[in-house]
Every structure is written in C-alpha cells, then in structure tokens.
Amino acid sequence: MSYNGTVTCSHCYQRGHNKRKCPSLTEDIKGKYDGNSRMAVQERENGNENDAEWYDTRAEHYRQLYLKRTKIDLATGEKVTNKAAKAARMKKMTCGYCQERGHTRRVCQHAQRDKQIFVEETRRMRIAALESARNLGIGLGSMIPIRSNGYDVSGEWRRDILTLRYVQSVLWDECHANRTSLIVKHIDARKLGAANQSAYTSRDQLTKLVQANDTALRYAAAEGQDLPISSLIPTLDPPKGWLQPTEQSLKVAIKQVFPTTGSKHAKQRDYDFVYPSGITKEIIKDLGLSEYYST
C-alpha cells in the first residue's frame, strides 16, 4: 500500500487492486494452463508419455490456482461451488494415519475403530493386571525391604543396604493396552518426613518391586542380616471407572499411542492394527469388526 492509502499490485504494479485480485495474474495463470495442456497433448501424440505426464502435472497445478481464484474449472469451463471444490480437494487428500486417499485423519474410520479396539483391550488388560497385583499382596501403604545403594549407619557407602520402601501411590492411568503392568511410586520410609521427597522416590512396576523384595530377603538370610520390619497391605482399590475405561478417560494414553505430531512414520497406523494377531485379533472378532481387518 502506498503512502496515500492506495493499493498497488505486487504483480502488475497497477494501482487499485492487490495481487490476489489481479486480473493480469489470473490471465497469466490461464495462459500457463492452456500452454501446458497443449504441450501434454502434443507430447502424447509424439509418443512421449513421460513428458506428457509432466505437462499434465503442471497444467493441473495451474488449474487448481485458477479454480481457487475464480471458482471456475478450466477443464470444464463451469463454475464450481465451494462444496464441490472441497470434495475435489478431498479426493486428492491422503490420510496421515492410514495413508488412504479421500479423507483426513480427523474423520478416518480406521483410526476410530482402532481406538475402539484399544479401549476394549485396555479394559481386559486392567482386569488381568489388577488380579495379578492383588495376588502379590502389596498395595498402597505397604512397606517392603529391598537392596539398594547408600550409606549405612556408620557412614560407609555400600551397594547392599536393606532399606524399607513405602509404597506411596499407584499410577493407575499408566496401565493400558500398551503397558500392562501396574506401576507404583515408592519412597525410603526414613524420608517420609523430608521436605523434598522426590529425591528419595522411585517408580517401578509392581512385579519388579516384589522381585526386588524377594531378592533382598534371600540375600539378607544368606548374610545373616536382621530384616527391617515390613508391612504388607493386600488390597488395591482402583479409582471409579478404571475398570470400565472410555476413550475420554484414556485421552492421555491415546495421545501417546495414536500421536498426531512427530515424524510421518510415527503418526502412521501401527502394524498391530494393520496385521492384527493375538488378543487384538480376538477383540476385533468379539466387536464384530472382522470385515475391516486382515484377520
């Protein structure tokens, strides 16, 4: 825009319009479409199919530019509605999830069905994980001894100290179809009153924590060490709705398993849904979705 407020076109440098509405540029685009279309026909008549396809691609590029500016399709000479133009664009659209053409990830039926299967698989996995965890006999508030590195009462650094760990919390939401074990946070029982407890807090799969406890008990028995007093609480009560997950309640997990950011490969459909097997295949059958999968 000039100093006096009059618009100057950056294409033809005439005043009174901008580049977006420049009639000269519109005619130039039409001319390039016509020229490339003629060359495509000529090369095809001469038997040069590769060159003809190159000119076709260029002609299509200018057809789309002209259509965007005027709503007129140069291939037919007819006016195109916004709805028809969008439908034409969608035919050329490739879904970032399933890699099929004609739709976007937002409305991809493959993605919607895969998420449905993920939710159901999470439900089944959580039932099994909770039963397994309860059989271990450890829950919130349990105190169990494990071997760890640290300073003993004499101030000596050792790698085999028995420390009493307090099970502080269960990370319920981190248990889903792709992560089938319950994970707990546990802290050195001596540091429960510390201001900065995070420095003394660890996280482990509950099964691995139990294994560490068993190892510590065997080691202490072999070394003749006195065991710290442990306290096991054999109940684990998940939050309401945990055993009946929904897509909304699994929002964080679904974002991790079905990412919409990152590399093209990371955002694509997982192999286990393209070629399902095991429990995934079983769930597909139970949900009546076999016709949509390679089962």
Please, could you describe this protein's structure?
- The chain is an alpha+beta fold.
- Helix content is 43%, strand content 13%.
- The protein contains nine helices and six strands, in the order ααββααββββααααα.
- Strands 3-4-5-6 form a four-stranded antiparallel sheet.
- Strand 3 and strand 4 (157-170) form a beta hairpin.
- The longest helix has 28 residues, at 109-136.
- It is elongated and about 95 Å long.
- The two termini are 63 Å apart.
- The mean pLDDT is 88.
Mean pLDDT: 88
General form: elongated
Mind telling me the C-alpha Rg? 33 Å
The low-confidence runs, each spanning 5 or more residues with pLDDT under 50, are: none
**SS elements, strand count:** 6
Number of helices: 9
Largest sheet: 4 strands, antiparallel
Instruction: Give the termini distance in whole angstroms.
Output: 63 Å
Largest sheet: spatial strand order = 3-4-5-6
Quote the beta fraction. 5-15%
Q: Order of helices and strands, N to C?
A: HHEEHHEEEEHHHHH
Q: Can you describe this structure in just a few lines?
A:
The chain is of the alpha+beta class.
Q: Could you give the topology of this structure?
A:
Layout (H helix, E strand, L loop, with lengths): L22 H23 L3 H22 L1 E2 L4 E2 L2 H11 L16 H28 L6 E9 L5 E14 L12 E6 L12 E5 H18 L27 H7 L6 H4 L3 H4 L3 H9 L9
Antiparallel strand pairs: 1-2, 3-4, 4-5, 5-6
List its traits.
9 helices; 13% strand; elongated; alpha+beta; two-stranded antiparallel ribbon; 43% helix; 295 residues
